[in-house]
Amino acid sequence: MPTYYNLKALIKGIRGCKTVADERALIQQESAAIRASFREEDTFQRHNNVAKLLYIHMLGSPAHFGQIECLKLVASPLFTDKRLGYLGIMLLLDENQEVLTLVTNSLKNDMNHSNMYAVGLALCTFANIASEEMSRDLANEIEKLLGSSNTYIRKKAALCALRVIKKVPDIADHFIGKAKNLLTDRNHGVLIAAITLVTEICSLEESYLNEFRSAVPLLVRNLKSLVTTGYSPEHDVSGITDPFLQVKILRLMRILGKGDEQASEAMNDILAQVATNTDGSKNVGNSILYETVLTVLDIEADTGLRVMAINILGKFLSNRDNNIRYVALNTLNKVVTMDTNAVQRHRNTILDCLRDGDISIRRRALELSYALINEQNVRILIRELLAFLEVADDEFKLGLTTQISLAAERFAPNKRWHIDTVLRVLKLAGNFVREEILSAFIRLVAHTPELQAYTASKLYLALRSDISQESLTLAATWILGEYSDILIEGGIVDDDKTTPVRDSELIDLLLSCFDSPYSNYLIRQFLLAALTKISARSTTSQPEQDRIAEVLAKYTTSPELELQQRAVEFASLFTLGETRVGVLEQMPAPELKATVMGVVSERKPVGSTKAMDADLLGDEISNAPSASVGSQPPVNPQSNQDLLAEIFGSSSELATSTSPPAAQPQKSSVDDILGLFGSSSSNSGPVPQTPSALPSYPATPATAVPSTFALPQSATPATPATPSVRKLTEYSAYEKNGLRVTLTPQTSAAKPGIVMILARFQTTGPPVTGISFQAAVPKSQQLQMLPMSNPNVNPGATETQQMRVVAPVGSNVRLRLRIGYTADGQTHQEQVDFAGFPAGLTSGTA
């Protein structure tokens, strides 16, 4: 007889063991006693013995000898015996065991049992352990139970049908009719099981998919009732009615609507309703919104709905939850090729993710940033990527340098900007640059004689300040060796000052690289070749030539075979007189080869050839009339604006201050913004195109990036004269609660249609804090804003914010302002319309 009478006593005995050995001994002793009891066919003790055996099985000890006893319990007329027997079968058997064939008959009998709970036990067991053979045998029983009047049985039968079609897909058509009927069920549990079954059937064959497309209106009706129903305590989860069922319906709609315009058309309205009415403040709502987005992007939805879906993902990027941000970035990566303009609106938020503490989010944001680069935003995005390159982990740098260089090669507005970009990459991460990128850069310089002096000058300064970056050293060595005469003749032009370079200084710099701890095998080979080239230039004095010959002679006995061979061959050239000069003259420009992005850079305009600091935001563009539109300075987008619809409601009369560059009318940038309101751009006014030939901006000590908001200055210094200074007029835009806001416009006759506006904030009373200043213009105009100098205004102080309006020449500038602030402990939010500027302002004459 067993030592312990029941399961409770066994558990108490095992817990009382002091050691693992004691526990193991007790289990072995009890297992032996249970075996002996089984042999005695003690029906009274069978229930207790199987219960104890299942507990022993859960502890990891063998219990297979109890399988037949479980079958005997299932055959018992008592429900408690059946329940324990089926539990034992699910735990001790799997679909590969031969004993399973003995279970089939018991399952069939119990599926026809008068007690719904006995039927439920049989269905539950079938759904867990059914093999292919058992599924074929009992498929008819399952199909019959799908039509049961009992919701409890219908739900379990639907899950069993799911098991059947997974095991035997060729009999799935038996369940199509019953599955359609289940979709009309009012019970949520049955509906979830039915939708799961239909989803699985649809994934099997295209013909099954067409069978269920007629059920789309039914799904739409079910989803609508869930969205519009009031509070239902039975199904409520965080204020949302049965989110699990909503997600299931959305997933099935995604499958049915894919590639079918008629089904997609029927879904559009309800999807828009779900996206609009679902509360995204909690995870439950976010899960539904995410499924809605996936459905919209997969079906043949209209453009407005797609834009809404991408805007939802954009809002996810502002969520505090890392998982939600990651999911949004991952999804945007997949859809960026589908609707690039809609994703572009969230560019600032995506770029903010590059500074996220989570490395996986940074990686996804980086991948998405690459996909967003185009001709219009290449300057801004490359600038942001270069800023990220400065602080990026080493694992990102190789991919970053490659992508930046390829984007510059593909979208560079001119060669000058392209060269500046690659130079910056070499300075920041010269140890993480692929050989192909270095070769392409050297080829670009060789094909751009106008910028060879500029490039040589920049590389000379860069190498003199940092010799630790391998690719920078290689590029500088090659360029300085090839074009040393240009550098020595022209000197270094820096900040409009020319600094002469002597041949001895150049040679000293290259020789210092030989002794550097960063010098490797490849760098030394480049250095030998560069020094030999320099020795053959007419700008190199005889003493320096002799010095180079001594260096070569030194390396003729180098233990490094390649260096020794090069040194011997180069040294022998010194005995050939004039022949040496011909052999070592400048190499012809390399043959153009198609790169990953194709041969593009060599066909770009040159850009400014003035030797001045690189402006990666990009105002050093060609003064030639042939300069392309891509060479125009881009507009710096405002980073703290969200959808205008959230600021001013759904007014379609205004255009936001986050509009794309005004200099690109052919890309319909106004339409991009109007997409936020669901309006068409067909009636929007023309946007004046800025002239393509713009002056260059000299760099200032504070920054090498001239402000997009600054009025253009003359490219060449004018003759000293007393300029006529026009007095600028201030216009009061807002004065209330101690806060005074004035607007000062400034125009230039050379740039009609562009109005620079300086907003000044002053307080006439106590300090004003937390100022939020937002503005919008009519849709025929475009507005960009710089951040405010300080959101807190103290008495006696004046804070400023710059704005730039691009408008059709001759039109009036009108602004809608929204001002939020805190004064005297009270929060104020005001909206005002301002049209106080004089007429003719956009003509540059006011």
UniProtKB/TrEMBL annotation:
Q: Which part of the chain is the GAE domain?
A: 726-838
Entry's SMART domains? Alpha_adaptinC2
Keyword list (alphabetical) reads: Cytoplasmic vesicle, Golgi apparatus, Membrane, Protein transport, Transport
Write down the PROSITE patterns for this protein, in alphabetical order: GAE
Q: Name one GO biological process term.
A: vesicle-mediated transport
The biased composition feature labelled Polar residues covers: 623-640, 651-668
User: Which Gene3D superfamilies does its entry note?
Assistant: 2.60.40.1230, Leucine-rich Repeat Variant
Task: Report the main location listed first in the record.
Answer: membrane
Tell me which GO cellular component terms the UniProt record holds.
Answer: AP-1 adaptor complex; cytosol
Location in the cell reads: Cytoplasmic vesicle membrane; Golgi apparatus
Q: Give me the ranges of the annotated region Disordered.
A: 621-640, 651-699
The Swiss-Prot or TrEMBL record describes its family as follows: Belongs to the adaptor complexes large subunit family.
Record note on quaternary structure:
Adaptor protein complex 1 (AP-1) is a heterotetramer composed of two large adaptins (gamma-type subunit APL4 and beta-type subunit APL2), a medium adaptin (mu-type subunit APM1) and a small adaptin (sigma-type subunit APS1). AP-1 interacts with clathrin.
- Return the protein name: AP-1 complex subunit gamma
- The organism encoding this protein is Ephemerocybe angulata
